[in-house]
């Protein structure tokens, strides 16, 4: 199962960063280029433990839907979203927040498994892992800029 891990240091307090990362409206704004919008479940504001959101986005020329659920949640420390339905065989995204010298270290740990056996593994190696990492980094850059502008 592929693993992507990113770290972003943000010159802002942990609570602000945590809340920005779980804000549906901010998420949509950060990935505007893919047309990502919340269409069902929690569609605006701060997502909480047990809540789901269904995203619609265009990736690789295809409109896709992905429903995720917040399965773990500790305010200002971490939350986890896991795919309930969508294009992946499995998907788990851990969002971790640590205070470091009056700054916030935001860590994403992203596990996914593509369907279609060996063909899915080939797609992972060829382009999918890099594509997802780029999406995470784009989103994190946006969150950093938004948090530091306050």
Q: Quick gist of this model?
A:
With 150 residues, this protein is an alpha+beta fold. The chain has a single domain (3-149), classed as START domain (Alpha-D-Glucose-1,6-Bisphosphate, Chain A, domain 4), CATH 3.30.530. The chain has helices spanning 14-21, 24-30, 117-149; strands at 3-10, 37-41, 52-59, 62-74, 78-85, 90-100, 103-113.
CATH architecture, please? 2-Layer Sandwich
Mean pLDDT rating: 93
Question: Counting H and I runs of at least 4 residues, what is the number of helices?
Answer: 3
Fill in the CATH topology. Alpha-D-Glucose-1,6-Bisphosphate, Chain A, domain 4
CATH class: Alpha Beta
Strand order of the largest sheet: 1-7-6-5-4-3-2
Distance between the termini: 38 Å
How many domains comprise the coordinates?
1
Radius of gyration: 15 Å
Q: Write the H/E string, N to C.
A: EHHEEEEEEH
Strand proportion, as a percent range, falls in 35-45%
The CATH homologous superfamily is termed: START domain
